[in-house]
Amino acid sequence: MKNHKPIHFLILKVIGFALLAVGVFILVNGLRTQVPDMGEDNWFDTSRDKSFMIFGGIACCFISLPFLLLGFRPEIAKMNVKSAKYIQQANKEDLTDIVNDTADIASDAITKTTRSIKKGLADTMYCKHCGAEIDRDSKFCSVCGQAQ
Ligand SMILES: [Zn+2]
Q1: pTM for this structure?
Q2: For the chain, what is the domain count?
Protein backbone atom coordinates (compact mmCIF):
# COMPACT_ATOMS: atom_id res chain seq x y z
CA MET A 1 0.00 0.00 0.00
CA LYS A 2 1.40 3.39 -1.00
CA ASN A 3 1.69 6.06 1.66
CA HIS A 4 -0.18 8.81 -0.18
CA LYS A 5 -1.24 11.85 1.80
CA PRO A 6 -4.05 13.89 0.23
CA ILE A 7 -3.28 17.62 0.13
CA HIS A 8 -6.34 18.61 2.17
CA PHE A 9 -5.00 16.80 5.24
CA LEU A 10 -1.79 18.81 4.91
CA ILE A 11 -3.81 22.04 4.64
CA LEU A 12 -5.81 21.13 7.74
CA LYS A 13 -2.57 20.39 9.61
CA VAL A 14 -1.03 23.72 8.57
CA ILE A 15 -4.19 25.62 9.59
CA GLY A 16 -4.32 23.69 12.88
CA PHE A 17 -0.69 24.36 13.74
CA ALA A 18 -0.96 28.01 12.66
CA LEU A 19 -4.04 28.51 14.88
CA LEU A 20 -2.30 26.74 17.76
CA ALA A 21 0.83 28.87 17.37
CA VAL A 22 -1.20 32.08 17.12
CA GLY A 23 -3.33 31.00 20.11
CA VAL A 24 -0.28 30.23 22.25
CA PHE A 25 1.36 33.49 21.14
CA ILE A 26 -1.74 35.55 22.02
CA LEU A 27 -2.19 33.66 25.30
CA VAL A 28 1.44 34.13 26.38
CA ASN A 29 1.33 37.85 25.50
CA GLY A 30 -2.02 38.25 27.24
CA LEU A 31 -0.59 36.60 30.37
CA ARG A 32 2.55 38.76 30.16
CA THR A 33 0.48 41.93 30.20
CA GLN A 34 -1.28 40.67 33.33
CA VAL A 35 1.78 39.53 35.30
CA PRO A 36 3.07 42.97 36.42
CA ASP A 37 -0.44 43.89 37.58
CA MET A 38 -1.01 40.68 39.55
CA GLY A 39 -0.17 41.60 43.16
CA GLU A 40 -3.41 41.99 45.11
CA ASP A 41 -5.28 43.01 41.96
CA ASN A 42 -8.10 40.93 40.57
CA TRP A 43 -6.75 38.52 37.94
CA PHE A 44 -10.00 38.64 36.00
CA ASP A 45 -10.31 42.41 35.98
CA THR A 46 -12.00 42.93 32.61
CA SER A 47 -11.29 46.65 32.62
CA ARG A 48 -7.68 45.83 31.77
CA ASP A 49 -7.48 46.32 28.06
CA LYS A 50 -5.43 43.22 27.25
CA SER A 51 -7.11 40.56 29.40
CA PHE A 52 -9.21 39.54 26.37
CA MET A 53 -5.98 38.21 24.86
CA ILE A 54 -5.92 35.39 27.43
CA PHE A 55 -9.41 34.23 26.48
CA GLY A 56 -8.77 34.91 22.80
CA GLY A 57 -5.60 32.84 22.96
CA ILE A 58 -7.34 29.96 24.73
CA ALA A 59 -10.21 30.11 22.22
CA CYS A 60 -7.72 30.10 19.34
CA CYS A 61 -5.99 27.01 20.78
CA PHE A 62 -9.35 25.25 21.11
CA ILE A 63 -10.36 26.16 17.56
CA SER A 64 -7.09 24.64 16.31
CA LEU A 65 -7.92 21.23 17.86
CA PRO A 66 -10.54 20.09 15.31
CA PHE A 67 -8.26 21.16 12.46
CA LEU A 68 -5.37 19.16 13.93
CA LEU A 69 -7.61 16.16 14.63
CA LEU A 70 -8.97 16.20 11.08
CA GLY A 71 -5.51 16.83 9.62
CA PHE A 72 -4.01 13.89 11.50
CA ARG A 73 -6.97 11.61 10.74
CA PRO A 74 -4.99 9.27 8.45
CA GLU A 75 -2.28 8.86 11.11
CA ILE A 76 -4.88 8.36 13.85
CA ALA A 77 -6.71 5.81 11.69
CA LYS A 78 -3.43 4.00 11.04
CA MET A 79 -2.69 3.98 14.78
CA ASN A 80 -6.16 2.61 15.49
CA VAL A 81 -5.69 -0.15 12.91
CA LYS A 82 -2.30 -0.98 14.43
CA SER A 83 -3.62 -1.11 17.99
CA ALA A 84 -6.67 -3.10 16.87
CA LYS A 85 -4.37 -5.59 15.14
CA TYR A 86 -2.15 -5.75 18.22
CA ILE A 87 -5.14 -6.36 20.51
CA GLN A 88 -6.45 -9.00 18.10
CA GLN A 89 -3.05 -10.72 18.02
CA ALA A 90 -2.68 -10.55 21.82
CA ASN A 91 -6.18 -11.92 22.28
CA LYS A 92 -5.48 -14.70 19.81
CA GLU A 93 -2.33 -15.71 21.69
CA ASP A 94 -4.16 -15.56 25.02
CA LEU A 95 -7.00 -17.66 23.63
CA THR A 96 -4.56 -20.19 22.20
CA ASP A 97 -2.83 -20.42 25.59
CA ILE A 98 -6.15 -20.80 27.39
CA VAL A 99 -7.35 -23.46 24.96
CA ASN A 100 -4.05 -25.36 25.18
CA ASP A 101 -3.96 -25.16 28.98
CA THR A 102 -7.58 -26.25 29.21
CA ALA A 103 -6.95 -29.08 26.75
CA ASP A 104 -3.91 -30.20 28.75
CA ILE A 105 -5.85 -30.09 32.02
CA ALA A 106 -8.84 -31.83 30.42
CA SER A 107 -6.76 -34.59 28.82
CA ASP A 108 -4.84 -35.08 32.07
CA ALA A 109 -8.10 -35.28 34.01
CA ILE A 110 -9.59 -37.68 31.46
CA THR A 111 -6.50 -39.90 31.59
CA LYS A 112 -6.57 -39.98 35.41
CA THR A 113 -10.32 -40.57 35.53
CA THR A 114 -10.12 -43.31 32.89
CA ARG A 115 -7.27 -44.98 34.77
CA SER A 116 -9.09 -44.91 38.09
CA ILE A 117 -12.34 -46.13 36.50
CA LYS A 118 -10.43 -48.97 34.83
CA LYS A 119 -8.79 -49.82 38.14
CA GLY A 120 -12.10 -49.64 39.96
CA LEU A 121 -13.98 -51.73 37.42
CA ALA A 122 -11.33 -54.24 36.50
CA ASP A 123 -11.25 -57.24 38.76
CA THR A 124 -7.51 -57.43 39.23
CA MET A 125 -5.09 -58.85 41.76
CA TYR A 126 -1.34 -59.02 42.17
CA CYS A 127 0.76 -62.09 41.50
CA LYS A 128 1.94 -63.78 44.68
CA HIS A 129 5.38 -64.36 43.16
CA CYS A 130 6.32 -61.39 40.99
CA GLY A 131 3.74 -58.78 42.02
CA ALA A 132 2.44 -58.15 38.47
CA GLU A 133 -1.14 -56.93 38.08
CA ILE A 134 -3.21 -59.83 36.70
CA ASP A 135 -6.87 -60.74 36.33
CA ARG A 136 -8.47 -61.97 39.53
CA ASP A 137 -9.86 -65.13 37.92
CA SER A 138 -6.56 -66.18 36.29
CA LYS A 139 -5.03 -69.41 37.54
CA PHE A 140 -1.54 -68.63 36.38
CA CYS A 141 0.39 -65.33 36.30
CA SER A 142 0.54 -63.93 32.78
CA VAL A 143 4.02 -62.51 33.50
CA CYS A 144 5.93 -65.19 35.41
CA GLY A 145 3.65 -68.19 34.77
CA GLN A 146 3.45 -69.23 38.43
CA ALA A 147 0.20 -70.79 39.72
CA GLN A 148 -1.92 -68.53 41.92
ZN1 LIG B 1 3.85 -63.61 38.49
Answers
A1: 0.46
A2: 1
